Amino acid sequence: xPKDIGKWTAAILKMRKEKDAFFGTHPHSPIxxxxxxxxxxxxxxxxxxxxRFELELHEHEKKEELTMQTSTGxxxxxxxxxxxxxxxxxxxxxxxxxxxxxxEESLFVPFRDATxxxxxxxxxRYLHLGYYDKLPDGKWVIDFNMAxxxxxxxxxxxxxxxxxxxxxxxxxxxxxxxxxxxxEVAVAQVGDSERS
Length: 196
Fold this sequence. Notes:
Elements: H1 5-25, E1 52-55, E2 58-59, E3 65-69, E4 75-88, E5 91-99, E6 107-111, E7 125-129, E8 140-143, H2 191-195
Antiparallel strand pairs: 1-8, 2-4, 3-4, 4-5, 6-7
C-alpha cells in the first residue's frame, strides 16, 4: 500500500494522461494513423492501491533460458531470473521475472489473468521493472496499475512476445490497461497453439 494514496493516485492519472497524449499525436504511436483523429484515450481500470505490492524477488540459482514466441512468428530469448510470490484474495500467485541477458538491469514480467480475453488483451499484459522500482530494502514494487498492453494490441506488425504459460494466473487482476475501445484483433491470440 502506498504511503500517500492521494499522491500515488495523482501520479497514476498524470502518467495515463501523458500516455494518451502520446498515443493520440506522436509519430511513433502504435495507434494506426487513420484512427488517431478519433482517438479519445486508452481504457483503464480505476487506480486501486490493493494491486500494488512490495515483494522480494526469489532469484533462481540457475538462470535457465526460455524462448518466447512472438506475435509475428519470431522468437525471443530470455533468462528466467527469479519469481515473485503474492496473493490475490485467497489465491496464491507466482510470476516469473525475465531478463534479456545477464547484463540487463530491468525485469520483464508478462502475465495473463482471469480478465484476459474479456476485459483485457487476450495475449496478456506487461510490467517492466527498472531501478526506480527497487526499494532500499531490496524488495521490488509490483504495481499492476502500471500493467500495459503490448503494441501489437493496437496494430499488426509489432513483434510482441506472448506470455509464457507459466505466467498465466487463475486470479483476476482488474488493474492497469483494459482492451482499447478501438481494438481490432491484429494478431492471433495465444489460443490452441500456445496450449498444445
